[in-house]
Amino acid sequence: MKALIAAGGRATRLRPITWTINKHLIPLANKPMLWYVLKKITDAGIRDIIINVNTGEIPEMSRALGDGSEFGARVTYIEQRGGAKGLAHVVANAQEQLQGERFLFFLGDNIILGSISRFVDRFQQENLDCMIALSRVKDPQRFGVPEFHPDGSLKHTIEKPQHPPSSFAVTGIYLFNEKFFEAFKTVQPSARGEYEITDVITWYIQNAKIGHEEITGWWKDTGTPDALIEGNALIMDDMGREEFCVHCDVPMETQIQGMVTIGKGSRVGPDCLIRGPVVIGEDCEITNSYIGPYTAIGNRVKIRNAEVEHSIVFAGATIDTTRRIVNSLIGQDATLVDSQRTHPKTGHHLIIGDNSFVEL
How many CB atoms lie within 10 A of CB 135? Predict the structure, then answer.
């Protein structure tokens, strides 16, 4: 089998972070989001992987993820031609690479607990034409949603319905055979101008042998800042104890509680409390601070006199504020300081980009 990963799009809900980085390269527990997708796919035994990216982004992606050798796989990159026209169009864009193949289609911004092997194995062992993974969600109107017959079999799937026919979402994990491109020829653009993957799935329901299975653990579509931060926490919970390690000298007085990683070259002061799970990168400087659970801190970050918890801090950022930072995304090379240090009068000195959210 082959695998196709969708890693394009503009991720407008994550701006301003995504003005300067592809969403799928945002670090979760200090690894690019796509690293976890590649790990899931290769652990399921698939070694031939294609990553679909925006025009002009192949160099950035290949620098971050390489050629797949880290995973014992072969990773190639293709550009999305014709712009954003829906998920079914992403697969159609890769027809030259996938024609005649059985393949996994994985949305690069989806993370799940546990293995995907059971989905792949069932697809192969039962010789299914299509297999979809479902998950119960609170807000199915945000997703593709299945409708079922009384006997529990699939009736059809519909994209982002105003009145969802079930509480399930079609997750971003799909398995298709070579009939996909026959199905795609029957699909017309939806009211929002996209070729919907749910229309292709409905074609399979009506014309082929399809299976579905519920994801029993967590599944996260990391399309919003809150979802990213939650995804970061879920990944930390899923990490093995052996993955946490302190790679630098830490003063005896420093309080380290729980599972914590600190990278090479980092300096942590004796007046710090770090309560895991926490991942701290290389060459960081942390003094007189508290770093709380579910915090990921990138390389070369400086934190002074601060409290940071349940947040993602990108590489090169500086946090020097007595205000408590929680549930936050701090972008690359960003700086947070107390207003009293930069302004002699009452008030806050702010430089805020498009689509930012600031709570003072």
Answer: 23
How big is the chain, counted in residues?
Answer: 360
Instruction: Examine the domain organization and report whether 58 and 145 are in the same domain.
Output: yes
291's tokens? 């770093």
Cis preceding linkage at 16, omega within 30: yes
Q: Is 345 exposed, middle or buried (0-12, 13-18, 19+ CB in 10 A)?
A: exposed
215 and 256 inside one domain: no
Q: ω before 150 within 30° of 0 (cis)?
A: no
Distance CA 243, CA 222 (A): 23
Q: How many CB atoms lie within 10 A of CB 145?
A: 24
Fill in the amino acid letter for 254: T
d(CA 117, CA 359): 42
Residues 208, 89 share a domain: yes
Share of residues in the chain with pLDDT > 70 (%): 92
| pLDDT value of position 16 | 72
What lies within 8 Å, CB to CB, of 228 at 6+ separation is 14, 26, 28, 222, 312, 329
Residue 302 Cα distances to 215, 248, 310, angstroms: 39, 16, 17
For tokens 């801190």, the residue is: 297
Across residues 247-260, what is the average pLDDT?
93
- Compute the mean pLDDT over every residue in the chain, rounded to the nearest whole number: 88
Residue 352 domain flag: no
Q: What is the pTM of this model?
A: 0.85
Report the distance separating Cα 110 and Cα 220, nearest Å.
6
User: What is the domain range of residue 222?
Assistant: 2-238
CA atoms of 98 and 282, how far apart (whole Å): 40
Answer yes or no: do 209 and 317 share one domain. Answer: no
Report residue 1 CA to chain centroid gap: 23
Rg of the chain taking only CA atoms, in angstroms: 22
Domains held by the chain: number: 2
